[in-house]
Write the structure tokens for this entry.
Amino acid sequence: MAENLPPPMAARRPNFWQNSGYGLLKQDANGHLTVTDDFLRAYFNRPEVAPVEESCQKERALHAELLETPKRPVSKDEIAALEDPDGRDNYQVLIDFRDRLIDAGTVEACYLNLFRDGDVRTAPLFLDQMAQVITRAVLDGTDDPFRARAGELMFREQTVTIHEGSILSGDLETVEMLAQSGGMGAIGTLLVEGGIKPRQVDLDVMQQENAHKYWQRDERHDMVLDLSFTRPGLDALSRVMEGWIDHFTGAAVSIQPVQKITDEKWVWHIGLDPDASAILNDLYDGNDVDEDRMERLLTLFRLEFKDDSLMLPDIAGRPVYMGLAMTEKKRLKLKPQNLLVNLPLAPEA
């Protein structure tokens, strides 16, 4: 009988972000996420395409058939025959995305193809959802709540507050929702300074003492991550980005936060968001960067390949510097695709 007992709670790995759809996917030999019927069905059950009372018979029939056979081809004429114009638009967007997923075979291939092709017309919602489920695969098996919370930066926009030298990152959607509902608290006062007003917001800053609570709140997005230098949150983000690069490319890299770039042979950099890209470009070109813009540069990273042969030959062995910045409105939207399309990989890699 003892052999049939579940493992002790301490031995179990948290099953977080269950609404991401990760549990509906299967992994191929490379650990990438193959597109399944169940994963596609979840999209057809979304409220944007699920039939409502006013839906016409053709829409109801199409929806039922897609739930039965999610990979069934859908022609433009079938979509044009739907009576509701919003329904037609929603179906066209979703079918286009579904077809990209099917053609690519894996979520990772679909995600990467979109940016490598340079024609990103897929809805931002779908891009973020793909980034989430891929990040979930990268983090599978982790028991570190800091890494899971840091992983949210790969697909959820943040609002940032600088307080007494600390860089506090809160989920933008959650902060705005709580601000509107009148949540109260000291940390809320700080986050209001990040542009959310006029009410206060009550959120917990993750620390070693309370980080375990994340596993019960993983889909509430209501814990604040401290991205200050030497803090666990910034180290966790570095590990997440390492895993993201390895997952897609197989290249093992080391990412460490740094406070400034003093490298006289600085040859390559990656901005993790548009503001950081612009600031790093100006610094690299020797252009003046005013104090206000420099203050928006939240952190720098030094990335090094463990196998230099995977890098472009003319910069092999040199570090890659990365930057993360907030906007003038103190928003932070990390672009994880920049870690892939801007990485100086050798062509054969």
